[in-house]
Amino acid sequence: MIIGYARVSTQDQNPQLQLDALSGAGCERVIHETATGTLRERPELTACLRTLRTGDALVVWKLDRLARSLKDLVKIIHELNQRGVGFRSLTESIDTTSSGGRLVFHIFGALAEFEHSLIRERTMAGLAAARARGRKGGRKPALSPADVRNAAAMLADPAITKADIAKHFSVSRVTLNAALNRAGVVDPQAAAKRTTV
């Protein structure tokens, strides 16, 4: 069975061109997605991929109608090939049921892997450069060094509890304890409790 898949784009909300091309390509059934590609969930595509069986073919008007990225596209086509399902893109004249079409997709797969490696290398180089300049990654601490000093001074007063201090700085007790531990502040209230036991 030849199944067509059409999806509207943000710029072009009229799918008629795709639907005409797919029916002209001999699609026995056309599944039409109205959600744009920016949305992660595409229920019609998921249902379409589930209905395809060995020997079937999935046809799209253009490659970008099927996937949001090269990596996503290669993953979908690879899964279809594993299941014995063919794939055709009308605009790019790609047909994975032919040896030439399979060659094109092997090249796409290699390009997707290369792109992934480049992104990873650039990310690692950027992190290394930031560390060399003395910048650390991660979230900013909830308590500044001055806040930690003030919290330590407040701890010296037995009438003030850690819950009161945490509330004063609008943080949780866990965050307060972690900040005090990092600063090497000894909790006099906890030490007093240990000596009385």
Report on the structure:
With 197 residues, the protein is of the alpha/beta class. The protein has 2 domains: 111 residues, 3-Layer(aba) Sandwich (Rossmann fold), CATH 3.40.50; 52 residues. It is built from 8 helices and 5 strands. A 5-stranded mixed beta sheet has the order 2-1-3-4-5, with helices on both faces. α3 links the parallel β3 and β4. α3 packs across α4. The chain is elongated, with a radius of gyration of 29 Å.
What would the keywords be for this entry?
single chain; 197 residues; alpha/beta; Rossmann fold; 2 domains; 5-stranded mixed sheet; elongated
Structure in a nutshell:
It contains 8 helices and 5 strands, in the order βαβαβαββααααα.
Overall pLDDT confidence: 83
The helix content, as a percent range, equals 40-55%
- CATH C-level category of the largest domain: Alpha Beta
* Tally of domains: 2
Structural class: alpha/beta
